[in-house]
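Ticket #4471: structure output looks truncated?

Reporter: J.K.
Steps to reproduce: submitted the chain below (160 residues) through the standard prediction queue, then opened the result file.
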Amino acid sequence: MDKLRRVLSGREENEELGLTDQILDASTLSYSTRVKWFVICFAGGILCSILGSALLFLPNGIKLFAVFYTIGNVAALSSTCFLMGPLNQLKRMFEPKRLIATIVMLLCLVLTLCAVFWWHKKGLAILFCMLQFLAMTWYSISYIPFARDAVMKCFTTCVS
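Returned output as attached by the reporter:
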């Protein structure tokens, strides 16, 4: 039907869609389908993170831990693409209030894998995994109004 509309409206049949149009056309899922895939992807991410934590205690389990924990965080982060769409997700990730958390989170994802596979530093890999967790948490609560302020107030109250 769309092809017929394009021909009747004067658009050429072999006209290429722009990248944005292709992405928007590909993301025309129903709301229930978006929610289902969000839950599947988010649960898969949590499962990978838990599995990675369990594998930490095996011999040479640090490599498996780092890989599964990183895959889990990437899956949990990408799960929100199903709710808001990939372009909107990227725009919101790099808004000024989330920019630092996003950069730290993405940098820690890469540095965790570098620490395990290239530098062979187990302690550094664990440190980067902790930083991944903290950056992901800080990034996630930025979507909740006044949550960052509440966390900062709670932290300063506990410290002082």
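Triage note (M.O.): checked the attachment and the full token line is present. The two ends are 66 Å apart (CA to CA).
Status: closed, working as intended.
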